[in-house]
Design goal:
It contains 5 helices and 3 strands; from the N terminus they run αααββαβα. The chain has 239 residues and is mostly helical. The chain folds into 2 domains: 148 residues, Helix Hairpins (Orthogonal Bundle), CATH 1.10.287.1490; 65 residues, no CATH class. A 3-stranded mixed beta sheet has the order 2-1-3. A hairpin with a 2-residue loop joins strand 1 and strand 2. Helix 1 runs antiparallel to helix 2.
């Protein structure tokens, strides 16, 4: 039983190294993905700002056309004032002219506001563009760096995985199956030490009789709480 436990402990140590390498590889990819998302966000911001600029430009053009059209009508009304026959007609045309001038003043103010908004949008586009460009430069650097690092990690992982296959062949098939199931369920830790009567996996006390059996190392035992395969480790060694 002790030999079986030792083989499982060695196998678990290898598996933990493989898991760590896998996490490091995934972390590198995650950093790249995060950078890409940031770039996409900047590009989306730029696209939305351009849409707003286009909408403002269209509205400004409409207002310019309305201004020109209304200006022509104002001229016509002013010309009519020279030929009116009654005071009532004169006052009516005069009021229409003044109202038209007020509307055009409002249109001019709206045009100014639209132009100010366009300038503000353009400034934001420049800012987002600069940020995007900087992110893209960093992405290029990171992709090169992560690519080199990933290649090294993959090579190391492949080497360790081969050692893992060799070690796994030395373990009893049924025991290996049990180990693999536990490793999946218990976040990679299938074999756990028991120190001073406490399982270091779930930190629960082991029943005294079970702990005595574990100390004898005559058979394979599992923790009654977390079901991990147990082995005894003296407190001095655990420290």
């Amino acid at each position: 039983m002790k030999e079986d436990i030792n083989q499982l402990r060695e196998l678990q140590e290898i598996d933990l190294k493989i898991s760590k390498l896998t996490e490091e590889i995934a972390a590198g990819s995650a950093d790249i993905d995060k950078r890409k998302l940031s770039i996409d966000a900047h590009k989306e911001t730029i696209a939305k700002l351009n849409e707003k600029i286009a909408a403002n430009e269209q509205r400004r053009q409409e207002l310019d056309e309305e201004l020109a059209s209304e200006a022509d009508r104002i001229k016509d009304r002013q010309a009519k004032l020279m030929n009116v026959q009654t005071n009532r007609e004169y006052q009516s045309i005069l009021k229409e002219t003044e109202d038209a001038k007020k509307l055009n003043t409002q249109r001019e103010e709206s045009v100014v506001q639209l132009m100010e908004q366009i300038e503000a949008f353009k400034e934001k586009i420049n800012e987002a563009t600069n940020l995007c460009r900087g992110e893209e430069e960093l992405l290029t650097e990171e992709m090169s760096k992560v690519g080199d690092q990933t290649a090294k990690l993959e090579t190391e992982k492949l080497k360790i995985s081969k050692a893992r296959d060799t070690k796994a062949k030395k373990v009893n098939a049924s025991l290996l199956k049990k180990y693999n199931v536990l490793r999946e369920k218990r976040k990679g830790i299938a074999v756990i030490e028991v120190t001073s009567g406490v399982c270091r996996g779930c930190f629960m006390n082991i029943p005294p009789q079970l702990f005595n059996d574990l100390m004898r190392e005559e058979k394979l035992l599992t923790c009654p709480t977390c079901n991990r395969i147990m082995f005894h480790q003296p407190a001095a060694e655990a420290e």
